[in-house]
Design a protein that fits this description.
By secondary structure, the chain is of the alpha/beta class. The chain contains 20 helices and 8 strands. The strands form 2 sheets. A 5-stranded parallel sheet has the order 2-3-4-1-5, with helices on both faces. It has a 3-stranded antiparallel sheet with strand order 6-8-7. The longest helix is centred in the middle third of the chain and has 20 residues. It starts with 10 loop residues before the first helix and ends in a 13-residue tail after the last helix.
């Protein structure tokens, strides 16, 4: 017995629809109730909201296509101006009507033109006798358009006197949409995040035919146990599941274990899942590159694969700026003379070590430094003379934008900006190697 029921649509169609949208039966049932029968007037506007990868776009597309309801589906990010958006709706409307054999571009400057052209477009018999649905995905972009666009779409049924429903899909709540002048309030429907049980059920449906469903479900259970606390994005989890499954199967393929040896399978996949944990969402390497790196079990492969940041492309002087910033963050100020003056005399480390400096500076974390100290260290470590031009200062700004440096902002400071270096020791050593600079010799902690 299907969970979805509707007097108009056959049970087989609803059963098929239910299989396509797992864990979203209550939302689909609510939408079917709002839609009603094909010829009935539906609610003028519906606002559907929820976090990323909560199934909003997929459910709407699946529902409209499975029930063969006439609809227009437009992404507001792709059609980012009101004119592009309105013209795209009219072009898709032409393809909905069987009387229009070839779609043509229709110029539409204002919403008044759109209302007039919309009435002409839905004049055909099949569009006049049933509800037309206009779905605007990523609808938060409507707030960036003219002030009349959003209120007009919410009242399109009233303005055109036609059987049309506008569906807005967004990741933010309706309260952030509502204009100060007021507007027609849409029917709001919330899509909650998938729970871990929902994710287990959805991901387990994609099991390869050559393996049993229980074997793949056990793999998904391990995957979610590792990633669920840091990633609940269904698309990202599907990508990770597809990417690491071949490594999970290796002991079975080699005959070293069977499908029930969970312990052996876990020990084989654990280090690779830890590697993948470092690049969740980043997609630093392509799927094919990742598979090649999986074959490299050594330490070199780990550095090569997981730290694409260590191979970040920076201009020549930006690398030295970053090295100078790291030295300024982790070396005490009094040691600058020791490291960067040629005739400083012989100074022993124990002579100027204070009680609080017995702890490693790397354990205490980076300390802020002024701009003039950064430039002084830069001039000392670069062989060629570097003039303090606008180019150098713009590269400092770029490093802050890349979050390799952070600006320490204090409103009471009048002596210029202060910065901190935010990169790790491994990162800066990799950068220093590209310019043949031995940074360890200049770090106070390694004397």
């Amino acid at each position: 017995m299907p969970n979805l029921e509707h007097p108009v649509y056959p049970a087989a169609t609803l059963l098929h629809l239910e299989s396509l949208v797992p864990c979203r039966e209550s939302q689909v049932s609510m939408l079917l109730s709002i839609f009603g029968e094909r010829q009935q007037f539906s609610f003028p506007s519906i606002f559907i909201y929820g976090h990323t990868s909560s199934g909003k776009t997929y459910v709407m597309q699946t529902l409209l296509n499975t029930l063969q309801l006439p609809h227009v589906f437009v992404n507001c990010v792709e059609y980012f101006t009101s004119r592009l958006l309105l013209e795209e709706i009219l072009i898709q409307l032409q393809s909905c009507s069987s009387e229009t054999k070839q779609t043509s571009h229709v110029p539409c400057e204002t919403f008044n033109d759109f209302v007039r052209l919309f009435k002409q477009a839905v004049a055909s018999r099949e569009l006049k006798d049933q509800t037309l649905y206009i779905v605007l995905d990523r609808a938060e972009q409507l707030r960036e358009m003219e002030a009349n666009i959003l209120p007009a779409f919410l009242r399109l049924q009233e303005l055109t006197d036609r059987n049309v429903t506008v569906v807005l899909l967004s990741e933010i709540v309706w309260e952030l949409f509502r204009p100060n002048t007021g507007c027609f309030e849409p029917f709001t429907l919330y899509f909650p995040d998938y729970s871990i049980g929902h994710l287990q059920k959805i991901l387990s449906q994609n099991h390869p035919p050559e393996y049993s469903a229980d074997f793949y479900a056990a793999y998904i259970n391990i995957l979610l146990g590792v990633f669920y606390m840091v990633c609940r994005d269904l698309k990202e989890l599907q990508h990770l599941a597809a990417l690491n499954f071949s490594k999970y199967c290796e002991p079975v393929v080699r005959g070293e274990a069977n499908e029930r040896d969970t312990r052996k399978l876990w020990k084989n996949i654990e280090p690779h899942l830890k590697k993948a944990m470092q690049t969740v969402y980043l997609r630093e390497v392509s799927s094919s590159q990742w598979e090649r790196l999986q074959c490299d079990d050594g330490e070199a492969g780990q550095l090569k694969g997981l730290s694409a940041h260590t191979h970040v492309e920076l201009p020549y002087y930006s690398k030295f700026l970053l090295i100078a910033a790291y030295l300024a963050s982790y070396n005490p100020v009094r040691t600058d003379k020791r490291f960067f003056l040629k005739h400083h005399g012989k100074i022993r480390k124990t002579n100027f070590m204070k009680k609080h400096e017995k702890t490693s500076n790397h354990l205490l974390g980076p300390k802020p430094f002024p701009l003039d100290r950064l430039l002084a260290i830069l001039y000392s470590i670069v062989d060629n003379r570097v003039a303090p031009t606008a180019n150098i200062f713009s590269q400092i700004t770029s490093l802050v934008t890349l979050q390799l440096l952070s600006m320490v902002d204090h409103s009471d400071q009048l002596d210029g900006p202060r910065y901190k270096c935010t990169v790790s020791l491994d990162f800066i050593r990799a950068i220093a190697r590209t310019v043949n600079f031995d940074i360890i010799k200049y770090l106070y902690d390694f004397l």
